[in-house]
Design a protein that fits this description.
The protein has two helices and seven strands, in the order ββββαββαβ. The chain is of the alpha+beta class.
Length: about 130
């Protein structure tokens, strides 16, 4: 089987960045939440993380911008507003203290790509890079 990740160098940090070859146009006017089942919820109005988490209390919300291989994914604080142009993932609480692996990242990228394909979102923009360490 082929690999599921590609990388390019981030010009600011010089680190490898996942998804470098994804060229899907991004809609930055909304915050997007990718649910465990792959469903995508889009928010054009401000909304706090706790409003998303309350739909599934066995999950936590994380930002695609804070995901790094080999580190635990930081949870978005309950009172934080989701940022337009950012992709968020709803993940099971059981994953909250487990370091993110490359297969985990690949799975999330596939899920996001499938769910967001209809919405024409740019997974390689500077606002949604996943940094490989």
């Amino acid at each position: 089987m082929g690999g599921c990740a590609s990388s390019t160098s981030d010009s600011k940090s010089g680190k490898a960045v996942a998804g470098g070859s994804s060229r899907i146009r991004r809609s930055s006017a909304t915050a997007k939440v990718v649910h465990i089942d792959g469903r995508v919820q889009e928010f054009s109005q401000p909304i706090q993380a706790k409003n998303i988490i309350s739909q599934d209390p066995n999950c936590f919300l994380c930002s695609s911008e804070s995901m790094s291989i080999g580190t635990c994914v930081p949870q978005v604080p309950d009172d934080e507003e989701l940022q337009p142009g950012t992709i968020y993932f709803l993940m099971p609480l059981s994953q909250s203290h487990k370091p993110l692996s490359l297969p985990d990242l690949c799975s999330l990228a596939i899920k996001a790509s499938s769910g967001l394909r209809k919405d024409s979102v740019n997974l390689s923009s500077s606002n949604s890079k996943l940094i490989l360490r």
